[in-house]
Amino acid sequence: MMAIQSKRRAVVDTSLCVACGACMEVCPRGAITVWKGSYSVVDDALCIGCGLCAKECPASVIRVEARP
Amino acid sequence: MKKSHWYNYLWIWSVIYFAMGFFHILFAWLGLISFFLPLIFAVGFGNKGFCNRYCDRGQLLRALGSQKGFSRRKDAPGWMKSKAFRYGFLAFFMAMFLHMLYTTYQVYAGTSELRQVVTLFWSIPAPWSFAYTGGAEPWAAQFAFGFYSMMLTSAILGILTMLAYKPRSWCVYCPMGTMTQLICRAKAGPNRKE
Q1: Residue B194 belongs to a domain
Q2: For chain A, what are the domain ranges?
Q3: What ipTM was estimated for this complex?
Q4: How many structural domains does chain B have?
Q5: A62-66/A39-42 β-pairing
Q6: Nearest residue, CB atoms, B181 vs list A19, A28, A58
Q7: What is chain B's pLDDT, residue by residue, as a tens digit (194 residues)?
Q8: Those residues with Cβ within 8 angstroms of residue B132's Cβ, 6 or more apart along the chain or in another chain
Q9: Could you tell me which residues of chain B have a Cβ less than 8 Å from any Cβ in chain A?
């Protein structure tokens, strides 16, 4: 069975991400990982677009936007 | 509710560290743990496991700012998030660190006396002789005073930006965070996915 996708998703500006992992810490779905200590990566399939990560991100580089 | 792990309580280490330095300055040496662990993660494993999971300061700022609600949760100003400021602050911090090592060397070499002060913001001396009763090599005590000054100054900066901006604003310009991210990016190579 296909999971129902949320209408929104989190998108990280990887060029300005500081890789602190604050987003990963608050994500209720475990959808975020910090790729090789360089920047955060959101697993699109798991993200429900709740925006907790965007709220926590100290560099404010996560946006919640509508899925294409 | 997320499952809590033993490492979610490491913020307590921050509190213990600063409290111990109040009673005996030589405990300040233990701050080197927060200096070497992130580097071991970055150089040895190519990740920021320390920042991401084990950083006591990050956890303390989140606990106070986010969970206790002391943070205004405003976006940090653009300059604070800029690469120029982050790398500039790293360079400044390293210069101050080297200066502290040089002061330690001067005491070791006998060309300078032990100064029992904690210097806040690299300029404001706070009398701290109550936390030292002698017994150690003067250079070891000098290093402890210098290191505690650095740790306390950066903690105060972190708390100020936690109150004014996002809880973990300190993480944006934390010199250890910036340095380990540079190491990790270099190790990850050009093939990273965008």
Answers
A1: no
A2: 8-66
A3: 0.90
A4: 1
A5: unpaired
A6: A19
A7: 577 899 999 999 999 999 999 999 999 999 999 999 999 999 999 999 999 999 999 999 999 999 999 999 999 999 999 999 999 999 999 999 999 999 999 999 999 999 999 999 999 999 898 999 888 999 999 999 999 999 999 999 999 999 999 999 999 999 999 999 999 999 998 755 55
A8: B24, B25, B26, B116, B141, B144, B145
A9: 2, 41-42, 46-49, 51-53, 58, 62, 66, 73, 75-76, 81, 86, 165-172, 174, 177-178, 180-181, 183-185, 187-188, 192-194
Residues from A in contact with B at Cβ < 8 Å: 14, 16, 18-22, 24-25, 28, 34-38, 41, 55-61
Class of the CATH-defined domain A8-66: alpha beta
**Residue B79: domain span:** 8-188
Look at residue B103 and tell me if it is in a domain: yes
Instruction: Return left, alpha or beta for A2; rule: phi > 0 is left, psi -120 to 50 is alpha, else beta.
Output: beta
Q: Which of A1, A30, A58, A12 lies closest to B55 in space, CA to CA?
A: A58
